[in-house]
Amino acid sequence: MGDSYIRHIELLGFERRFFPSQHYVYMFLVKWSDLSEKLIYRKFSEIYAFHKALKEMFPIESGDIDIKDRILPPLPAPKWFDNQKTTETRQGTLAEYCHSLINLPPKISRCQLLLSFYQVREEDENPPAPHPFKKNETYLMAKDNSRSNTSEITGPIILQTYRVIADYNKGSKYQLNLKEGEQVDIVEKSTNGWWFCQCESRRGWVPASYLEPLEGPDETEEQEPNYAGELFVTTKAYTAEQDDELTLQEGETIEVIHKLLEGWWVIRQGEQTGHYPSMFLRKSGEIRPADTEREFDRRATPPPRRSTIRNAKSIHTRGRQRISQDTYRRNSRRYLHQRGQREAHSTPANQRQKLQSVQESQANNENNNQNGSTPPLSDQTKALPTMPPRPSKEVILERCTEHTRKKVSIRYSI
Fold this sequence. Notes:
Layout: E1 6-17, E2 23-32, E3 37-42, H1 44-57, H2 84-89, H3 91-102, H4 106-109, H5 112-117, H6 122-125, E4 137-140, E5 160-164, E6 183-189, E7 194-199, E8 202-207, E9 211-213, E10 230-234, E11 253-258, E12 264-269, E13 272-277, E14 281-283, H7 293-298, H8 325-345, H9 349-371, H10 377-383, H11 393-399, H12 402-413
């Protein structure tokens, strides 16, 4: 390890294993001074044995000579029998212990005993063989509660398992190399189509298009199309590479009609529909904060589409249900036509009242003229207000907002 030392230790959660017998191991993400990050697994009995050895190495700092000199954090002894409940409720104490340990003076936080304990072992990189009938269960700890009271710890999260349909070679250090047939656990599903996964002891970003559920070919979380559309603005230009994609420049306003999990959303511009990378879109009126280095890296290029993957092999006999662009375009035009008809036949209530008032005034004037009486000029002015001429289409498009301009252009295009 040389002069490297540990900068940070984060408790991610714990794993329930069934081979050779049921037991629990804690998952730690160890960040070293050389900017490397390693995932390690430790039993609580191992952690407590390390704690006892550390107390023997530093008797003054552990308070064995004088309790006033104690700076080593306390750690409760393991119980006779560890179950899931005790393993879960112990996470808050263990996270606080690791945080306090790294903030001790360098003679303790950088001692060889501590560095050796948190180094990657062979069993960390190559975990023991899983149980032939039971799969290991992973439980993540909520980040906001990593240093809180044990009573505030949320329940465990069982990760979803997906299968890799084709070999994937990573494009950056934040991604994973995958082989067809491997199974990965999903830690985070990002709307841009890059999912954070765990494959055995490896963790990184993977395109969702390379993964399929084990239960069936279709995604149960996939949303239905919304032809009413949501207004979005393009944040980056994109040139279409497939026939069912759209080419747009930065700053254009479009409507999203179908949000797909693989990160390629179906959008509408006028009567045209097509796929567009969701990472190049932001909701109209939304202001995004600057991305971190990791976020920028995985958002640099859109994930590959499922249709472009070669030699994809699925375990399901039935293919995924997909909506064609012809269906999107036909349903979108039908919706726009119906919306235009509703807007054309809908007159606001106040306009109807004004029209009725004008018609009644005109009828009264006609009756007065027939009777030979002429109302005062002031009454005529009040009864018949002067209506300004209707502006032309060009004037409307020039003076209205972008939102109104878009609606007018859609209506005239029908």
